Amino acid sequence: MAETEETFMSHLIELRSRVMKALIAIIIAFLCLMPWAAQIFDLLAHPMLAALPAGSKMIATGVITPFLIPVKVTMLLAFMIVLPWVMYQAWAFIAPGLYTHEKRLVAPLVISSSVLFLAGVAFCYFFVFGLVFPFINNFAPSSVSVAPDIDSYVGFVLTMFFVFGLTFEVPVVVIVLVRMGLVEVAKLKQIRPYVIVGAFIVSAVLTPPDVMSQLLLAVPLCILYEVGLLLAPVFARATRAPASEEETEVS
């Protein structure tokens, strides 16, 4: 019992150390970016402003909103910058309990998860917003002056970033499911029609009620699912346990 408690406490201490290292990195990045918080928000607002008539601006209805929203956006950017470091801390915490062949799987997945999430955010910002905002604003009646509130805009943008970031994690999910033996690639290929239908249902629920947004989420979701099907067997073969380790696991 004493050994169990000591082991548990050592894991808690290690977890606290890893969390603190991740938080310190986020805080340092945030403090370094704070002098440019206003410019960072302007960069985030660019896709919307580019879709509005010339000279249009956003509005802030709250008293301290012009300060809080840029700070919130800066904190998000700081987290995205240090995301690889945060993912590394998570990997370093679980790595000692893994077999050698399992470590060969975790490291690429941690790196690819970070890259794919950032790729999803970049795809949303540079491509989706450039199509969706003009598409939506073109429907505004000529009698209406479109001036989005910055609080609502940031909430919408962060939701879309999160949705597309998670969507781009689909290949990682497929690889993990196959590698853990929970499902076979042949079965995943068999249910492909249901996945396509599910992708459009999910996109209809998570995106704004316009066809453009739904297509821009559903189509990449289907493509990334196919990418996962192609890569899953490769990862499974590359991380298969040697005979000696399999015997060790059984014993």
Folded structure, characterized:
The protein is mostly helical and 251 residues long. The protein has helices at residues 2-33, 37-51, 65-81, 83-94, 100-137, 150-167, 170-179, 185-190, 192-206, 211-238, 243-250. The radius of gyration is 22 Å and the shape is flat. The model is unreliable at 244-251 (pLDDT under 50).
Task: Identify the notable features of this structure and list them briefly.
single chain, 251 residues, mainly alpha, 79% helix, 0% strand, flat, disordered C terminus
Summarize the structure.
With 251 residues, this protein is mainly alpha-helical. Helices cover 79% and strands 0% of the residues. Residues 244-251 have low confidence and may be disordered.
Report the principal-axis shape: flat
Helix fraction bin? over 70%
Tell me the number of helical segments per DSSP (H or I, 4 or more residues long).
Answer: 11
What is the number of strand segments?
0
Query: Sheet with the most strands?
Result: none
Query: What's the SSE pattern?
Result: HHHHHHHHHHH
Secondary structure category: mainly alpha
- Average pLDDT, rounded to a whole number, is 82
Euclidean distance between termini CA atoms: 23 Å
Residue windows where pLDDT falls under 50 for at least 5 positions: 244-251
Radius of gyration: 22 Å
Percent of residues in beta strands?
under 5%
What's the structural blueprint in terms of helices and strands?
Blueprint: H1 2-33, H2 37-51, H3 65-81, H4 83-94, H5 100-137, H6 150-167, H7 170-179, H8 185-190, H9 192-206, H10 211-238, H11 243-250
